[in-house]
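Complex record, three chains
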Amino acid sequence: MAKGAIVIDIERCKGCGVCIPACPNKVIALAKKVNKKGYNYLEVQNDNCIGCANCAIVCPDGVITVYRAK
Amino acid sequence: MNREDIIKPENLVYRRTPVLTENIMHYCPGCGHGTAHRLVAEVIEEMGIQEKTIGIAPVGCSVLAYNYFEVDMQEAAHGRAPALATAVKRLKPDFFVFSYQGDGDLAAIGTGETIHACNRGENITMIFINNGIYGMTGGQMAPTTLEDMKTSTSPYGREVQSMGNPLKITELLAQLPGTCYVTRQAVYTPALVRKCKRAIRQAFENQKENKGVSFVEIVSNCNSGWKMTPTASNQWLEDNMLPFYPLGDIKVSK
Amino acid sequence: MKELRLMKGNEAIAEAAIRYGVDGYFGYPITPQSEILEHLMAEEPYKKTGMVVLQAESEVASINMVYGGAACGKRAMTTSSSPGISLMQEGLSYIAGAELPCLVVNVVRGGPGLGTIQPSQADYFQTTKGGGHGDYRLITLAPASVQEMYDFVALAFELAFKYRNPAMILSDGVIGQVMEKVQIDDYKPRWTDEYIKKSFPWATTGKNPNTPHVIVTSLELDSSKQEQVNIRIQKKYRECEAKEVRYELINCEDAEYLFVAYGSSARICQKAIQLGREKGIKVGLVRPITLWPFPSKILNEMADKVKGMLSVEMSAGQMVEDVLLATKHKIKVEHYGRFGGIIPTPQEVLHALETKIIGG
């Protein structure tokens, strides 16, 4: 069961994918769809987020907001 | 627990700092500049010094840094950020002053201003992004370009005999009595980001004690200039840049 | 009663800066103006008014320190001589482009190149026609006495802040080195940070909680916006040209011939007028005090009254081009000058008037 959750600012995402190897639980991947700028943006692909914020802190564009249940 | 139950203000663990403006940065996807900006902004937020900070932007990729930091900003002539920072700090000594420069700006055209600001021991924080290349002008050789590294002005690789050696300016600056804290960091993994942020925090805290220049080099990527994907450029950075530019503190004064 | 002192022109610049309440001086030694930095260091103004004085590593660093200080709304200045001023041109262009006030003093020496350390006026073009890149102007004051060296520090800062543009005092090795008596003021306090924050919303004085951050830059990548920046700056310059022209008329009432000269050349011309009038030549002097904006209107008016004008400059003929533009070829205009550090005598100036204008 998920303990964490992330919110992705899709239009701010440039699809660089730097966050993907930073995630310990393989929660995130690039979408097949693109945002308004034409980037394959980041999306959540499962419920395994633990709210560690690793993805957010390596993101150069401040795309990700992280929550973790207490 | 479902997603809606988790996404509540009381569960927030990370959000974009308000010391960055809402502007979407112009940097290429995956560029370390964005992360470096964020860390500086987060440190300013955490220290509560947003109204007491003046930043100096360079010429180069980060010329538009002034559009992203939500603090008062000045845009310097190419290489001259340490001169502006010197005057700002001396005329406003109760302010926190930081310069933000790339390797062409700081270690080529601005070498004189860099060395003398460091040697005078100006009480400022200098952030230095080293990606071994001139990014903004399209990937030309920089003073920091590695031996044999291909750029648009060293298309067959940097040949040291004719093109000179890559410059370890950070080690050079550590020799100067005016620097109190000199460190080399990177921002491409979560652990390195956390470490780099602590270094930037230290570099700003030092200004409270009038210790001299605090200098933080961040070895970064330039995936466009290096002609790689963002993740491949980070791997290349680890494999090629870090052996020549090893991470860690170079000088920590008591 | 003001205090009177015997001072060098260079010392007068330094003393005026301290007493006027300048916040920061950043400079690099060069002959013939090193006494400015020496006097400032000897006077220890940081103990008197809190003024910052710093010997920089180069003129390039000096002007960029001035840029940083000016961007904070502080009164910042530097001084140098010709080769050093050449090095500052990039910075001056940035300061003008960012629309910041500052003062730069050029105690001109002979060029080109390393040239000579003797006096010259050959930096007129560089100063009044731009110098650095892009469309900008320097508000230029030309002192002809040590008293004016002193007085123009305050005037230059007032004009610089009024128009948010760099101002230059264009002096030369004569005025910088000669000693004359000078009336000096009491120490004025420097502006407080609170006053600067309130008065100059364009300055980086620390972000206010409820307003956007301040950005000082000369960059605008969008050409349509950059054109608007230029249009705004040019509008400011037209206003400056309409309001700020300053000049002095000497013996012009009955003059049939005129010298046009500034700075130390104007002093030489005053003696030449005396010699000429002893011989019955009715000659006067128009002395431009602002070289930009240039006193074109009065010269054009005078061109309707006199038979000819001689532009006397310690250069190969620079200001004479502005005199020609102003007088629109209504009368004969010639140039007389010595260069490379040679100062003309009043006798040779008068002889030039007699041969080039009266007999020419």
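Note: Chain C has a mean pLDDT of 97.
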